[in-house]
Amino acid sequence: MNVIDAHAHLGRWFNFAIPDGSAESLLAVMDRCGVAQACVSHLLAVGPDARAGNALLVADLARYPGRLLGYAVYQPHDPEAGARLRDLLDVPGMAGVKLHPDVHEAELDAPAYAEAFEIAAERGVPVLSHGQYGSPWSDPARFAAVGPRYPALPVLMGHAGLWPEGFAAAARAAAAAPNLVLETCGSRMTARHLVRLVREVGAERIAFGSDAVFLDLRVGLGRVRLAELSEADRAQILYGTMKGLL
In terms of Cα–Cα distance, which of 150, 151, 152, 132 is closest to 142? Predict the structure, then answer.
């Protein structure tokens, strides 16, 4: 079965144990698990230095064309972020835009991110944003607010709300905004929660993501492979949904 990982990373994070954040490490696990492609952002770009992290990502995309697809991180506090995003989306293999409202301390539906959404819509590439229930920056309600502003733009809610108490809110947001896609990664997501989300929003609105190298790709993939889903729904989550967005 073909598998596309909709949410992965390269690099390291200051307070999280990542034994090996290299592209080679991620590709080795992908090969073992049968993952054809991973859509990645660089953790340095998500965190303290978007410019340097995006540059590292560009180098890895050139080394592994076709296996790694990139999310360019948009840093809303960089006055040149818009111009930089346009240049990054011209890079071969750059397939989308990554936002992290909690790290940036900016609300997803605030004007600070409007330019990123507008550029993504112009270029026809998806936006993946961290989504965390109860967060002042990335609660599912903010996805429900921003989604209808760009109805033709696919917006992936990373972690589908992150916490079990937030999965229902994520489903409600998806119901309110047809262009929202729920992405599955997170240490609190279980196969049971996944089955419930499929029942509530449909497999075509859900994409598999692992959060590797931050989390273990094998755990996230196993959750989908072993869930009590039809094979058609499983294939849609592991491959079909993301294939349709790229």
Answer: 132
